[in-house]
Amino acid sequence: MNNKTIVILQVFSVTLIWGLVLSITALCIHLIHVAYRVHDVPDATVAISIIAILIFWVLGSILTYVFVGLHKQRG
Amino acid sequence: MRDIIIGSVAFLLALVISSVWFIHARDARSEVLQPIQFNHKLMIEKTGFTCMGCHKLVKTNARAGIPNIETCGMCHSQMMGKSNEENKVVAYVRQNKQIPWRTIYYVPDYVYFSHRRHVGIAKLKCSVCHGAIASMTTPPRKQFLAIKMQNCIDCHEKYKASTDCYACHR
Amino acid sequence: MARYGMVIDLDRCTGCGACVTACKAENNVAIVSEDDAKMGRTMFWMKMLVGYEGEYPNIKMKFIPRLCFECDKPPCIKVCPVRATYKNEDGLVAQIYPQCIGCRYCMAACPYTVKVFNWYRYVPEKPMSNCINPDVSVRPKGVVEKCTFCIHRLQKAKELAQAEHRKMREGDYVPACMQVCPAKAFYFGDLDNPQNRVTEAMRDVRGFTLLEDLGTDPKVHYLHAK
Amino acid sequence: MNSQNYKTDEDEVLFRPIYHTGRGFYLIAAVLLLIMLVAGTLYVSQLIYGLGVTGMGEPVTWGFYIIDFIFFIGISHAGTLISAILRLSKAEWRRPITRMAEVITAIVLAIGGLHPIIDLGRPDRILHLVTSGRLQSPLLWDVFSITAYFTASTVYLYLPLIPDIALLRDRGDKHHKLYEFLSWGYNGSPEHKKVLERAINILMVMVIPIAISVHTIISWIFAMTLQPGWHSTIFGPYFVVGAIFSGIAALLIIMIIFRKAYHFENYLRDVHFDYLSTLLLIMSLLWFYFTFAEYLTGFYGHEPQEMRVFFYKIDGRFAPLFWLMVVCNFVIPVILLGFKKLRKIPGILIASFSVILGMWLERLIIVIPSLANPRLSYVRTGVYFPSITEVMLLLFGLAALGFGFMMFSKLFPLISIWEIKEGREESVHNVSQRLKGYFPAPQAMHSMEVEGHHEQ
């Protein structure tokens, strides 16, 4: 395992968090869609998902910020 | 470190295998072989029967009804042709034994499915769910339209039938 | 769409328990072992609640057959995380067993405690296993179940009415508990139809519902002269 | 082992647990693993036979699992919340304790998050939450808030860990590649420090509302229903206060145990315990205030259904537990922590254990009596007695917490080394600067610096 693999793994770990963030976003959109289809209080669903999506996006961004910041000035 | 890699590879492998197995086990039902290689096409062509000729309850009952040997026996108490399969039918009729047909289409007990609703009231064609069964020369070996809720819902949405869970679940 | 409701005349009810038995038989409600019963796992969709009024020796027993009240504003459906319980177009509170994940939140939210849970997979023993009603599913383990107003009867009745090209009539569809009541204490039918006997009974001055102040608007009313 | 070169490191003690493992460690780990194994077996039997193996019935349909769920999630507030608040308020004494607090959070959240799944009748249908989840249900709020909190607290654990990982990487002994991977190329340059500091600052502000929301939402699971004893507006803050309360107690216990085991006496000093236990004392008083307010309003209103639950708690079957809870959560901590003489390590340890027990009892007393006394007064009062499965799964949670903590201590330092170093190098200067900024008068400089030492 050389340095290159480690960097690839590191990039992979950042994509993981984005995988989580995006899947949460997709899940929220899916749930909103379902709520609209069955007329089950969609506005509440929208309100809750907005908060959830926002939080996860900020979390993902912070981690990415650190990752980019630590790699930019490497060496 | 090596242990970690080996462990995670093994874990991923197990995950892949189990998920493949899981998906596979859900979809692929082993094919069902009937005791007699019944020929729907020949039957319809020779006798001019419609589906309802043999599946008599299809419009009035929840189950369509598989003909019993008394029905078969009306014609097949002796050989009418030369086929080997007919021979078997005749044998069953002579022994007065019901033919052990095997179920292909079945719904779980928590689902209310009725042919009356679909054929009698909604006037659906048999082929919607059972495919071109009238022109088949051998009995179907597996479900033409898999009995899955998504299939039901797709059709219900298409024809604006009720998609309320309580329309079918019980 | 119809809005099915029920009225139970407590002044007629003798507390015989025929409705309880009929419900158990009709809906394949499990009969649990003695040990389980002691832990409070008896399963009743229709339960005979017994209240006592007055002081010894002038005690008056009060019988209240309690089924799911099919509330118009049910507290249980609000909390279900997977839409396994919801109010359907006929105003019935549906409980969809294959959808239920068994979190039992609806049970905690129901102020009337009408829901029961399948703690085990109950396999009916020999004589009873012949008495399974094929129209009703046998619930698997780990799901919540409750009175359905005998929904399987409605499914059939609706279909028969459709096949005969007519509208549903009063009496086409009655739950099992009402059918067997020897005291004729039950009224059942579409509440939107003012001609029904049930709507008439609902206008009775003796009428009340349990825990009225919660605003759940139960569709099962009781009649009782104070 | 070539860590000899580093023997000169002033904080060598903090690295030691990573490189040296005593026999006691293996012994305790084995015991904890055994407990987890037994509990795991029992859980498998629950999977096979159904929830009937528990002691739950009707109307008590929630039992130990939900209690443990609230309890563990409550403990998780030890970490991120406390460490974030302390960081935010620039409390310098936080430096040696933040890491432990954050680790507790991450581990306990994972354990706590498992409990609702354990509690499900059909865990095989968990995917229904994805395919047809209802965001209107408080349970789904919980799924989201716990996921968010878990992600946030893991990130919040990880980011301040990076410099330490880099230190470990530079030592180059054990797990070199792992540290290389995890350190994300941190090299301690001012730019890197700045990036990390900024990220931590944003996170700690963000983590506080998330942490508060998590326990508020858990309380809403109960408060959103109409049940007597649950349907209360005070539940959100009440649960949060209880959570922080039990969190601090758990943190104190872990600190005392690992201080002893890993010889951190020089880092976790009396002043840390003193401050933390003062915090515990404040939370105890706050908890009492909330409990009093909650029960008094219920009692004064005298709604019959509410009173049935109320008397069941303070006078009926649950009275011993209720009063034990009051003793554990209020009387013992106030006595032990209120007097400076008793506020020593043994006293703090006892008080913390009593708080942990008391808070667990509090969850029990919230969940069970309300369920046992349904609103409909004709329904019989329920009985509940836990089965061995439920007890073992509670032990599983505790064992998993201990085990997880021990595992963590073998990979990463339990005390934030860079923060200690930074504190040593910079904060004395920073704090005195800050103190100067507090007061206008330049004449009293000398006496103020003496005070300054006292304060931090």
Set down the secondary structure blueprint.
The complex is a heterotetramer of chains A (75), B (170), C (226) and D (456).
Chain A: H1 3-37, H2 42-72
Helix pairs in contact in A: 1-2
Chain B: H1 2-27, H2 40-47, H3 51-54, H4 69-76, H5 84-95, H6 115-121, H7 126-130, H8 149-158, H9 165-168
Helix pairs in contact in B: 4-5
Chain D: H1 12-19, H2 23-49, H3 64-75, H4 79-88, H5 98-119, H6 128-132, H7 138-158, H8 162-171, H9 176-182, H10 190-223, H11 235-262, H12 270-301, H13 304-314, H14 319-338, H15 345-372, H16 388-411, H17 417-438, H18 445-455
The CATH architecture of the largest domain in chain D can be named as Up-down Bundle
Q: Provide the helix percentage of chain B.
A: 40-55%
Mean pLDDT of chain B: 83
Largest sheet of chain D: none
The CATH homologous superfamily of the largest domain in chain D: Formate dehydrogenase/DMSO reductase domain
- Strand portion of chain D: under 5%
The CATH topology name of the largest domain in chain D reads Formate dehydrogenase/DMSO reductase fold
Beta content of chain B? under 5%
Order of helices and strands of chain D, N to C?
HHHHHHHHHHHHHHHHHH
* Uncertain segments of chain B: none
Run of helices and strands of chain B? HHHHHHHHH
Oligomerization state: heterotetramer
Which spans of chain D of ≥5 residues are poorly predicted at pLDDT below 50?
Answer: none
Task: Walk me through the structure.
The complex is a heterotetramer of chains A (75), B (170), C (226) and D (456). Chain A is an all-alpha fold and 75 residues long. Chain A has helices spanning 3-37, 42-72. Chain A has one domain. Chain B is built from nine helices and no strands. The mean pLDDT of chain B is 83. By secondary structure, chain C is an alpha+beta fold. Chain C has a single domain, classed as 2-Layer Sandwich (Alpha-Beta Plaits), CATH 3.30.70. In chain C, a hairpin with a 5-residue loop joins strand 4 and strand 5. The longest helix of chain C is centred in the last third of the chain and has 13 residues, at 151-163. The two termini of chain C are 35 Å apart. Chains in contact: A-D, B-C, B-D, C-D. Chains C and D meet through strand 2, helix 3, helix 4 and strand 6 of C and helix 6 and helix 7 of D.
Give a quick precis of the structure.
Chain C is an alpha+beta fold. Chain C has helices spanning 18-26, 34-38, 75-79, 105-109, 126-129, 151-163, 176-180, 197-202; strands at 4-9, 47-53, 60-66, 85-87, 93-95, 116-117, 144-145, 186-190, 207-208, 220-223.
